[in-house]
Amino acid sequence: MKAILITILMLLIAIIALAQETGDSIASQQLQEIVVQAPKVIRKADMDVYYPSRSAVDNSKNGVQLLNNLMIPSLTVTESLGIIQAAGQSVQVRINGRESSIEQVKTLLPETIKKVEWIDNPGLRYNGANYVLNFIVSNPTVGGSLMTNAMPAVNQVWGNYFADLKFNNGRSQFEIWGRFKLTNKIKSHREYQETFTYPDGAFLTRNETSRGGNMDNTMGNITASYSYIKPDTTVLMVDLSYYRKFTDKFTYNGLLSLSNGMDDILLTDMHGDKGSKPYLSVYFEQHFANKQMLVVDFNSSFYFGRSYSDYIEQLPDATEYLTDIHTMIKDRNQAYGIEADYIKKWNNSRFTAGISYTANRNRSVYENLDGEIFHQRQDKVYFFAEYFQRIKKFTFTAGIGAQYTDFLFRETNQGSDSWNMRPQATVTYGINQNHQFKLSFESWQSTPSLAETNIAPQQLDGFQWRIGNPNLKTSNSYMLTLKYNFNVPRVTGSFGVRAFTSPNAITPLLYWDNDRLTTTYENSQGLKNLSFFIAPQIDIIPKWLMMSGYLQYRMERMSGSGYKLHNYNWSGNANLRLMHWGFVLSAQYMRAQHDLWGEKISWGENISVIDLSYNWKNWQFGAGMIMPFGKYDQGSKMLSKWNTNEQHMRLDMRMPYISISYNLQWGHQKRSAQKLIKADANVDTSTAGGR
What we know:
The chain is mainly beta. It has five helices and 40 strands. The strands form four sheets. It has a 22-stranded antiparallel barrel. A six-stranded mixed sheet has the order 1-2-8-9-6-7, covered by helices on one side. Strands 24-25-29-28 form a four-stranded mixed sheet, with no helix packed on it. The chain starts with a helix and ends in a 24-residue tail after the last strand. Residues 1-38 have low confidence and may be disordered.
């Protein structure tokens, strides 16, 4: 019934939008593709293009602030936490088509950002990205720049700090930037209750009463780069970076009560990881005659670190432990990736083809298993070809990818290999300048992770264990989306329906092995879901007060060995922004998506933020609060017949903060180089067991 009501609501909105259609006050112009033109957004076949207003530029001091001021529906930009998300998923950020990061977006001058391209159904050339933001930036007129930002909390040891310095010499540019994120002993507690059911029908319930805890999460990185740019001819980039995770630790203390009449038990649960990751990137782009281009990217990364878990149970007056579990895994892992793409453009069409190779070599030492060593090798090859064509009011994009995956455990000679196809297609029909329909089909593959395949057993608590499955196969996912985009006076937006299936999803599986409840992994019977969504942007007071948001309702079903589960939930975000006289007042609320995966429903952070900033010359001053209302919640619910539980992690995140930014430019500076492609060289890391 709820799904029917949502469908009726969406149809009513479409009828109202069509009825309100009026003549566009902006003169039309001939573009390379059929577009829907509006004062704020031009809807092309493969993207939405946002042009910053004068007000948005004047009230911004960097690229992230400008992005916030654009109020793109469905997009959540939380500058205080360094997060850009859409519908609860990650967003790939690019500058002039080349892959970048949120830190590099912060270095952009708002005056140089000519437009922002929002791509909500990326093609095969984006290699599995959920969403893509592409900033189109003109050549700045300065020869160097210095940008700094500090955002400390007032009542907690928490903060984000950033600095970037660039120098230019002819066609060469030298850059060094660094970031430091500090989180030290943020107070937390856990709400946890679970019931274990044994094969003979007996059961045991455990309730935890929190005795406090804390979270640490401190990291930093520094990057030095060189780039050479000969406009429209050659681009060369070399990046050398070093990332350090100083600590990422969660410590929890509780009192455990059991239904079998045992005395209450004191509980300590601590887990985390730390390590270093140097990486090197070399990028080359060459343009040829007749709108042809060759792009090559090489990446390598190394990881030296450790993950750990400590779980202790003891009676209040006892000197010995009932349960004492220590897990320590030392990783020395490496990854290499290389990708080459060929791009050819015509007036009304485009062809892209590419090939990539990724290699992971992992070496893990289990110190709690007398130093036992495990080696894992994983190789992945990916080919793709994609073609785009415009025919009157229709545009078509179609492509096919093929992925070969092979992984092996050296010690046991166990592993698997597989070929998977990745078809993708999009059809767009523009009714007129204000109304557009888009139907897209996507597919992708997910390879088993190191934690899911590692055969080393890990003990989680008194009788729970985890062990990987080296026989896992690469899983496939398919998604079909129908979306309607509309522009009416003071309102732009979209709504639609999305169907998703992953018929052999890799999911956890619980089973009893004598008196041990063991978690392993399987290629399940699959996940299916159907979601309805609407994403509007409303000018309440033009140039002053705007509102945007995203609302989604999702129904899903998950099947695996011995279970079939359903999940229904609402999620979304809302943003309100008032801009005038150099002041920007913003409020944001995000309700996390609840995801069913295997026999567990989990959800991310529910976040609220308010922020007030003022821009003056090269400075920006601000103050705000994270979680001014609502309660921080991140957790999960287990629905297994062997273990039902519900967990809520609460953090003391009601944090007022201040922010100070300084931005200085000088001389004559060319456009900074960014990447059109990025080879996959994400190094794997182990995960120590934790309940």
